[in-house]
Write a structure and sequence with these properties.
Blueprint (H helix, E strand, L loop, with lengths): L2 E8 L16 H12 L7 E2 L8 E10 L6 H12 L4 E9 L11 E10 L12 E3 L5 H9 L3 E4 L14 E13 L5 E9 L6 H14 L4 H10 L14 E7 L8
Parallel strand pairs: 3-10, 5-6
Antiparallel strand pairs: 1-3, 1-4, 2-3, 5-9, 5-10, 7-8, 8-9
Length: about 260
């Protein structure tokens, strides 16, 4: 059976997450239903990461096995037709080897978190960013973020229901960028890179760093929380709507052509 890699973009608000669920809408379920319209029967796809309810993606990667050989362009066009009106789009499609796996072949995952600080309610970006009302200090947040980069036991920053075998991970990048806004507010974009992430790790980081930016925590408090290796030492976990799975890397990019 031919195997295809799919690069997928989605708005997470209507979904209970990536993973298929029996009684709630999921992104996986939407894509599998579209595949069934092309080739009747059950389809199971695997993804590079299982995003939570409300989390978005600009470059999720999944793979599927099909009975017939499809031209990649025609396959993506057909899937996009059958995905309507769900806020899900196949932005790239490529044939891959039979042993290629969207999750296990990945060597890096990249996340983006968008945080906007302004008093007035957001209109056009509602549901796409986390909004706070008070201004934040980018330099302080970056100082706190720097304490988290590298190889650490991230017990403090992972969900109590995380199923990862070990809390020890290497965080390659956590960069806080401030973006100029015409509305007078502040936008902060948190760029994160690692081979893999723990459940709720990114939202735990950002929620904690927001407290640093607001002056409620110091950067040193981030170090204390990390070294505590205790979930109770974590700052508040921020909401999901500002989080995006922004990229997945492989030894050879299947979409390079």
């Amino acid at each position: 059976m031919p195997r295809y890699a799919l690069k997928i973009e989605y708005h997470g608000a209507p979904f209970a997450g990536w993973q298929r669920q029996a009684d709630q809408p999921s992104v996986q379920g939407a894509v599998e239903a579209a595949l069934a319209r092309l080739e009747p029967g059950e389809h199971t796809i695997a993804a590079a990461g299982r995003t939570d309810a409300g989390v978005h993606a600009t470059a999720q990667v999944a793979h599927c096995d099909l009975a017939r050989d499809w031209d990649p362009f025609r396959l993506s066009e057909a899937l996009n037709y059958h995905l309507k009106p769900a806020p899900v789009a196949i932005v790239a499609c490529a044939p891959v080897a039979h042993d290629w796996h969207a999750r296990f072949s990945a060597v890096e995952r990249r996340y983006l978190f968008r945080l906007v600080a302004r008093r007035a309610p957001l209109v056009h970006e509602a549901g796409l960013v986390w909004q706070v009302k008070n201004r934040l200090d980018r330099a302080a947040m970056q100082d706190g973020a720097d304490r988290l980069i590298g190889l650490h036991d991230f017990t403090t920053f992972r969900s109590s229901i995380c199923q990862a075998a070990s809390p020890v991970k290497t965080l390659d990048e956590l960069r806080v960028e401030e973006i100029a806004r015409a509305d007078g507010g502040q936008e902060f974009q948190f760029h994160l890179r690692a081979r893999s992430f723990l459940h709720n790790q990114v939202r735990s980081f950002v929620g904690t760093l927001e407290r640093v930016g607001a002056g409620a925590w110091t950067p040193d408090d981030v170090t204390v929380a990390l070294e505590a290796r205790d979930r109770a030492a974590c700052g508040p976990v921020c909401p999901p709507e500002g989080l995006y799975l922004a990229g997945v890397s492989y030894p050879v990019d299947p979409f390079a052509a």
